[in-house]
């Protein structure tokens, strides 16, 4: 139920995902399961009630927040105030 079958699409996949998420809602280790999947970069299955795509989005938000926190700490170390604008550089290489 937590992992899709090869070529599973449409309503059968949506039904399986819904059923897995319902189990996750009642699970006492849901948060630990999700954290493991995010840190281990699990690319398949439902973990902590989240699909692969949902975890990818969560991970990217976590990475952005982590980067912003690092920049904020670096600015504090240099004596810059939180009101000092910070520019985030984005890599354009692929």
Keywords:
94 residues, mainly alpha, 3 helices, 0% strand
Give a quick summary of the entry:
By secondary structure, this protein is mostly helical. The chain has three helices and no strands. It has a domain of 61 residues.
Q: What does the model show?
A:
- It is built from three helices and no strands.
- Helices cover 56% and strands 0% of the residues.
- The protein has a domain at 1-61.
- The chain has 94 residues and is mostly helical.
Q: Distance between the terminal alpha carbons, to the nearest Å?
A: 35 Å
Largest sheet: none
Please bin the fraction of helical residues: 55-70%
Q: How many distinct helices?
A: 3
Name the structural class: mainly alpha
Low-confidence stretches: 82-94
| Shape by Cα distribution | globular
- Global mean pLDDT: 78
Please outline the helices and strands.
Layout: H1 10-25, H2 30-40, H3 52-77
Helix pairs in contact: 2-3
């Amino acid at each position: 139920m937590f992992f899709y079958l090869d070529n599973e699409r449409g309503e059968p996949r949506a039904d399986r995902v819904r059923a897995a998420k319902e189990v996750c809602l009642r699970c006492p280790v849901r948060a630990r399961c999700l954290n493991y999947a995010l840190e281990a970069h699990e690319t398949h299955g439902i973990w902590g009630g989240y699909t692969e795509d949902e975890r990818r989005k969560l991970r990217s938000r976590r990475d952005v927040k982590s980067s912003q926190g690092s920049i904020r700490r670096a600015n504090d170390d240099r004596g810059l105030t939180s009101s000092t604008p910070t520019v985030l550089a984005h890599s354009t290489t692929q």
